[in-house]
Amino acid sequence: MRRSFLHLLLVVLRLGSATAADSGAVIERKDGSAEVSWPISEKERGKIVFSLKEDQPLIKSISVGEKPIVKGLNPVTLLTVGSRDMKSPAGWVAFFDNPRLRHYDTYAVKLGRRSLNDLKDGNRVLLQVAEVSAGPFKGHVQFTLYRNSPLILMETVLSTEEDGRAIVYDTGLASAKPDWKATVWRDTQGQVQRAPLDVGAEASNLAVAGRAIVAEGEGGALAVFPAPHRFFFPLDEAFNLKFVWYGRNYGKLLPDYGIGIRQSNDGDKRFVPWFNAPPNTKQQLGMFCLITDGGGEKALDEVAKYTHADRYPKLPGHSTFTSHYHIEHTKEYLRKQKEQNTTGVPAGLEVPGFVKTFKARGVNIVHLAEFHNGQTPKMKRDERLLELGTMHRECERLSDPELLILPGEEANVHLGGHWLSFFPKPVYWVLNREGGKPFAEQVEGFGTVYHVGDPGDVLELMEKENGLMWTAHARIKSSIGYPDKYKDSEFFRSKHFLGAAWKAMPADLSRPTLGWRVLDLLDDMSNWGARKQAHGEADLFRMETDFETYAHMNINYLRLDKLPNFKDGWQPVLDALRSGAFFTTTGEVLISDFTIDGKASGETVKLKADADPVLEGHLEWTFPLAFAVIVSGDGQKVTRHIVNMNDTEQFGSHGMKMPVDYLKERTWVRLEVWDVAGNGAYTQPVWLEK
């Protein structure tokens, strides 16, 4: 039955596609070269010609139809190899690490012996074309082509036997004799910029919008860009660190002229953990290319479609919710009031940059995490109330029918580890209840003010004000060991403890998914019988319009068809979170519907003795999908059913419906879906009872 179920799911997802398991690629080997063509749309074909002679550029040409866009290219990669602090208790689950401050080496990846090995994978074909090496790492270069898509995924796949390695990479395409006309990009304000080809120009790093740069030729254009989230290791700040490059002598190690993508080894100069590279793992150092017979601007527009132009799309019956931002707007507001000697809105903060940024991303609801300061728990009542009152007033002032900005903070007191608070209305509370101080008091101008001094006080506050709390960055950072250490506590078991929050942290390019740390925790909590949730969090600081915010964000689609008004309170937002009425996504994959016997995530199904449970759902995506995972548990173990989706094309949507007999022996089930760029979405559990 299990095999027939998986087959049925695949059949459902293949509806509307071309011949199953056929990439449409044609490979011709002749005279020391290999010519590969494939359909890039229903009407057009792309073509790459590889040279298998080691004294020639690996790529003879890339074309749309018979019109070459670029000629004489080599894939080029710089691999920076540092160390992970394996003496730290965090080990591979590290954020508070800085390989940039220890010894590291940067290697230009060397191309070696060439041959063409083609591997068919559903409607895509993978081409391994050359061996490569870089210091203690060895591997190969491969290209993946997708039916009816102009995408080319170029990857340098490397592994090492050395332990404790952390890495960063830059990559691109370069030519000793570049033949394109111009390099094209959008600046951080979205304006198209064009630089005519200057073969003698030294490499420049650029801050761009959309993470893409284009070589514009006579026969069309070739854009290069990273996976929109997987390429970015976690940082506190979402600065735009000039993630693309063009020119010659890049990094003083790549002499030819090229274009490509890059990382900053120094990041935001706080904690900069880079990527994990455990021994004997295949690190996939990837870059997407997109080809078109149009110009550079058209190529940029086509790239933008894969991330909805870095904007979370509207979904009927849903509102977008994002959480955990240490913007510190309140402190900046008070500081500027003092500097400008005003009691009104300070100049420059009429419409702060973070408000413009969230609106540009398509966010409906923002939950802040203000006062992320070690002095906050020590504040006396009046100083604390001044800050809380300012935060509440500013949230109300900055909210409108399009964007609801809600107060919140990462309190980090009394429970253990770090945690966030969220109330359905403005609440005043002081974090350091002193001996003899009442739990609650009335303060003129503020009403009820609470004082908390231990876990019991915190829980009582949440009960009285119907609030929520959850573990911030669970099992990493300052929450290593949490919520596991307090999973049997009264406050964790209460309905006011939501669970945890998901973020792509740590990073490992050998893994095809993101955020496994919290997805594993969600499954553990479900098997504990706790019925908790794990929504997405950003855990970022400033958010300005010229930052690279989309790469570091995720979003929650709440089943909430109307935004509350700030002055009326926002209880429906907390209700949707508490009840698991949402799915979380990086933005490119949408799970707009998922039910078991008609019950959605967060709800409970009474299983029928005489019928198999029926799974139904609806998916939408931009990049071709890679696989889905149906995750279920029985209170003891977790079972993951991997469903290959290698026959999906780009920009698709499909429904699914099938009976799933093995769920009769489970207590919960949820769904994950991942695409070929490592983008993904997941639901909260549906609870199963006999």
As a percent range, the share of strand residues is: 35-45%
Largest sheet: 11 strands, antiparallel
CATH class of the largest domain: Alpha Beta
- What's the mean pLDDT score? 95
| The CATH homologous superfamily of the largest domain | Metal-dependent hydrolases
Rounded Rg: 26 Å
Walk me through the topology:
Layout: H1 2-13, E1 26-30, E2 33-39, E3 45-51, E4 59-64, E5 67-83, E6 105-108, E7 110-121, E8 124-134, E9 137-146, E10 151-159, E11 165-175, E12 182-186, E13 192-196, E14 204-206, E15 213-216, E16 221-225, E17 244-250, E18 254-261, E19 275-277, E20 283-292, H2 296-304, E21 319-323, H3 329-340, H4 353-361, E22 365-367, H5 381-398, E23 404-406, E24 409-410, E25 419-422, E26 428-430, E27 440-443, E28 447-451, H6 455-465, E29 468-471, H7 490-493, E30 497-502, H8 516-527, E31 533-536, H9 549-552, E32 555-558, H10 571-578, E33 582-585, E34 589-596, E35 599-600, E36 604-606, E37 614-621, E38 625-633, E39 638-644, E40 652-659, E41 668-675, E42 680-683, E43 686-689
Parallel strand pairs: 21-22, 22-23, 26-28, 29-30, 30-31, 36-43
Antiparallel strand pairs: 1-2, 2-3, 3-4, 4-5, 5-6, 5-11, 7-8, 8-9, 9-10, 10-20, 11-18, 11-19, 12-13, 12-15, 14-17, 15-16, 16-20, 17-18, 21-32, 24-25, 25-29, 27-28, 32-33, 33-42, 34-35, 34-37, 37-40, 38-39, 38-41, 41-42, 41-43
Helix pairs in contact: 3-5
Keywords: Signal
Signal peptide: 1-20
